[in-house]
Amino acid sequence: MPTTLVIGATGTVGSALIPDLQRRGHQVRLATRTPTKPEHVALDLLSGAGLDWALQGANRLFLLSPPGHLNQDVLLKPIIDRAAQQGVEKVVLMSAMGADADPTSGLSLAEAHLAHSGLPYAVIRPNWFMQNFHTFWMGSILATNEVQLPVGDAKASFIDARDIAAVAAALLDSTHNNAQAYDLTGPEAIDHATATALISAASGRHIGFRDVTPEQMRPGLLQAGLPADYAEFLLTILSYLKAGYAERTTTAVPDILGRPARPFADYARDYADAWRA
Predict the structure, then answer these.
(1) 55 dihedral zone (left: phi>0; alpha: psi -120 to 50; beta)
(2) Cβ(267)–Cβ(130) under 8 Å?
(3) Where are the alpha helices (DSSP H) in the chain?
(4) N or C, which end of the chain is more exposed by having fewer CB within 10 Å?
(5) Rounded distance, CA 61 to CA 172, Å?
(6) What's residue 39's pLDDT?
(7) What percent of the chain has pLDDT above 90?
(8) Which CATH number describes the domain made up of 3-126+159-184+248-261?
(9) Of 148, 175, 126, 170, whose CA–CA distance to 238 is shortest?
(10) Would you say the C-alpha torsion 113, 116, 120, 124 has a positive or negative sign?
């Protein structure tokens, strides 16, 4: 029975990954910065506190960078190095689709460090999460019944976080050295107006979409507590979405899982209660 350390265990992907791994017979070690349950282990990626203990005896590692930080390579490289020293058999790193477009970006540097670490590995690069519509964009929905973003009518191949977790579980369940990156998308590209229409149909609550400017969005990001540099980063990647870079679809999810990726309508139906509340 492999022991798998899941970093970010209480996050959107990590919380879905845990039961997938358990169904595959893994003993899962749940690492989080703020443990709230007895089965959690304390791990602070910013300081490295708890890393050696969390990795002790772990055969597999699911790794991601905490949100709100741009120096992902600074946070992730020490973990990769310690995993190599501890003899971890497989690492799956969650990056982001498009990270490879800029070789100087934090995530791209982290990917390169993993590729040269000697560890068997795979990198998954998901597109924009469907789950953003009931998490990050929920404040705007509650206040205005609208999703307000500076993306126009651009389309994105949104992916369900449950599919990201299922892919990660499949890759972690094998000690095969994939030694490659997989761009993960949903099965179709839709715009935000279509997405909110599907949510409205599923939940019975009318939710619209409004295109706003970056200048209109920036104050809300800062008021929500985002660091200024990360707020600018978010506006930048939203501009890439508006430019069409998130529209591409891939077959990575069905190729790895042997089933289609979930369409947005299924996500809207499964999470309908979130918007009804």
Answers:
(1) alpha
(2) yes
(3) 12-23, 51-55, 72-86, 106-115, 138-144, 161-172, 192-203, 214-223, 228-242, 252-257, 264-270, 272-276
(4) N
(5) 8
(6) 78
(7) 90
(8) 3.40.50.720
(9) 148
(10) positive
Query: Is the whole model's pTM more than 0.85, yes or no?
Result: yes
Helix (H, G, I), strand (E, B) or coil at 149: strand
User: Using one digit for the tens of pLDDT, what is the confidence trace for 112-150?
Assistant: 999 999 999 999 999 999 999 999 999 999 999 999 999
Chain centroid, CA 254 distance in Å: 18
Break the chain into its structural domains and give their ranges: 3-126+159-184+248-261
With contact defined as beta carbons under 8 Å apart, do 162 and 16 qualify? yes
pLDDT of residue 266: 98
Q: What is the 3-state secondary structure (H, E, C) of 19-83?
A: HHHHHCCCEEEEEECCCCCCCEEECCCCCCCCHHHHHCCCCEEEECCCCCCCCHHHHHHHHHHHH
